[in-house]
């Protein structure tokens, strides 16, 4: 296993090394008794690499890696039966994970509160959340500005009860016996807030319908 504490590893700065070490300590505390050191650090390391390949803001890489590793570890815990809260889990997928899937996850989390779990991902993750999507969601008092585009991984797809695809076509992952729904929605990339509003409203309508299907009370 590659050691993230090795000062020569990928020429990380001292601050990045310390940030990753701190992240690993937090993850160890959260998943103590569920996963061992090797699994936790492997997920943190691979999550870092996934963002390092295209990040334009290196100082945020350890934080993004920690957040994504935490999500992946929670997903793996569900897959392996370590975490069985019975909450429906939905994965929203689009191309860049910067607009449609982020708005869908925002509505889902807002309406379901803690009664269900939502994740999102992209086949070609972008660099930032679409500003028009952020503004359109803010009009509904839903803040998605703290989210970030991310890829999907096998454990995240496997942990989902329902996978919602939005324009990623053949690039979307296919797992046997998994429930898939394809939502045909305009891509908000490059659109103004005014043009994004109809997409936002259609996403909200579909998310509300999905929650009804899943038997999740709407907040």
Quick tags:
219 residues, alpha/beta, Helicase, Ruva Protein, domain 3, Rossmann fold, 2 domains, 4-stranded parallel β-sheet, 7 helices, disordered N terminus
Architecture overview:
This protein is globular. Helix 4 links the parallel strand 1 (89-94) and strand 2. It has a four-stranded parallel β-sheet. The longest helix has 22 residues, at 193-214. It is built from seven helices and four strands. With 219 residues, the chain is α/β, with parallel strands linked by helices. The protein has helices spanning 14-30, 37-52, 61-79, 100-112, 131-138, 154-159, 193-214, and strands at 89-94, 117-122, 162-166, 179-182. The model is unreliable at 1-9 (pLDDT under 50). 43% of the residues are buried.
List strands and helices in order, with pairings.
Elements: H1 14-30, H2 37-52, H3 61-79, E1 89-94, H4 100-112, E2 117-122, H5 131-138, H6 154-159, E3 162-166, E4 179-182, H7 193-214
Parallel strand pairs: 1-2, 1-3, 3-4
Domain Phosphotyrosine protein phosphatase I: 88-213
Protein name: Protein-tyrosine-phosphatase
Keywords: Arsenical resistance
Brief digest:
Keywords: Arsenical resistance. With 219 residues, this protein is an alpha/beta fold. The chain is built from 7 helices and 4 strands.
